[in-house]
């Protein structure tokens, strides 16, 4: 299985409280396994507050819904040994 790397990393975002914010990270290969999103070192699951999806097989997205002051912090995307933060 080829080593999946990060082609285009996360970008910092500033958003108003109550708004949604989306982070995108592009990887080198489709169907990447061992992918993880974190906020402040806490692993995120796909639910009503966090929408995790993959577009076109390579663009992994995380949307945080109706952010609050408690959501301030570092977002991390990890694929295998590679990470990107914003």
Automatic annotation (TrEMBL):
Keyword Magnesium appears in the UniProt entry: no
The Ig-like domain, residue ranges: 2-86
InterPro entries: Ig-like_dom (IPR007110), Ig-like_dom_sf (IPR036179), Ig-like_fold (IPR013783), Ig_I-set (IPR013098), Obscurin/Obscurin-like_Reg (IPR052385)
Keyword list, A-Z: Cytoplasm, Disulfide bond, Phosphoprotein
Domain of life: Eukaryota
Official protein name in the record: OBSCN protein
Annotated compartments: Cytoplasm
